[in-house]
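Researcher: Good morning. I'm working through a list of sequences from a screen, and I'd like to move beyond sequence-only analysis. For each chain I'm collecting a predicted structure so we can compare shapes side by side. This is the next one on the list. No need for commentary yet; just the structure.
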Amino acid sequence: MEQRIGSSSQPLEGAGFDPAFIPGLTSPGSGAKADDGPEDAKAEQDERVEEADDAEHTASGEAETSGEPSSAQPGGPEGADEADDEEAPDGPVFEASDRRARIVADHKGVRLALDDQQCEFRWDEIGAVETESPRFGKRFTITVHTPDRRWYPIEIEAASRAKFTEWDEQLDAVLDAYFEEGEEGDKAAEDDAA
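Model: Good morning. Structure tokens for this chain:
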């Protein structure tokens, strides 16, 4: 008696066995060669990945030679902030952050961020900036007031209470340098108009 190794029956096809079966289309397994083993399939996949990487490097090289900014270059979207920082005048900058909140005050204005929400105020949009340090706890509150009677508070958790005085001094230096300039410019414009 002869014994056969392996199954002689063909795999069943149809909607009863494969919910994605569409009559007339070949199954994904039928397009592969019968002699391809797992090693051959892995080698083909590695080869495709290498080709994609080569194509990506070639495209980025062409972008560099053509002068188009890519995201990895300083002129790209991620490098835009770096380019702005290079053009920034030498002046005081206040920056404080914790795990959720962040505030930056510099020559552009005041930028607040809490989790995924952000807002930015130019110096001409700000009516006042108020700080408050609690009697107990480590949460430093900064409130930006606008001329239209709206306010935007943000709380920054400090590592220690000693940071409160340091942050107050840094913020005062920024406000003296930039906020007062805007008011003096407005007064000069009013005097010219009178």
